[in-house]
Amino acid sequence: MENFGKLGLYIFFTFVYAWISVSPGRGQASSHPRPRRIGKAGLDKGDFFRMLLRLGWTTVLFLLLVLASPPAQADTVTVYDFEGFDDLTSLTTQYSGLAFSNTIILTAGISINELEFPPHSGVGVASDDGGPISVSFAVPVLSFGGYFTYALPLTLTGFDALNNQIAAANTAFSSNDGLYGDPGSSPNEFVSIAFAQGISSVTITGSPEGGSFVLDDATLTTESSAVPEPSSFYLLLNLVGGFLLVSFRKRLFCKSL
Hints:
Blueprint: H1 2-21, H2 45-68, E1 76-80, E2 98-101, E3 103-107, E4 124-129, E5 133-150, E6 155-159, E7 165-170, E8 189-205, E9 210-222, H3 231-256
């Protein structure tokens, strides 16, 4: 969509430039005869078709430059589904770039009742064990969230590298488990926090003793490592290149007349 906006602006300026370039300046005589006129503006047919040709050539140049421009990069979203672990595994640093504390893997049908705490996907979930879950990120993330089924209200809190609180979110209900949840609730409520300058760690607090919720499909958003497209630079480059091409073609036409 951004390239379409550049195309519209580019064609507008090119059209204006091409229109002006085919008309003699104030006080100047035309460099070639104009025996046939089009419309009230006094533009002859040769000028009209030259203007269209210049517009076409500069539009082609724009498209070539856009194709050569590096595309803007989207942020990266990563989902951790807690599958592939043995039941009752203590989760610490098994996921690269993440460090969990007070976290245990539970398996539906073995250590948890899937009717009360159903996983959002698969059979594995993470649960608070002995206290609030804490997750630290090797590289700050833009957002963190997940699907929570809980017996007590939860608070999700984000911190920066200096351990200052920068974001927080609460669950919508006091309980949302599949058997005893609050009226109107349902398991696997998605709760998330975001901070544009980056979140270095999060805590998920239910019961101080743990055993109060399960988390599934934890979702992280990280900034792309690719350099974003410098839109204004490429727009300026396109405009300058188009104007140079128009001027060059104008000189060629003048020599041929």
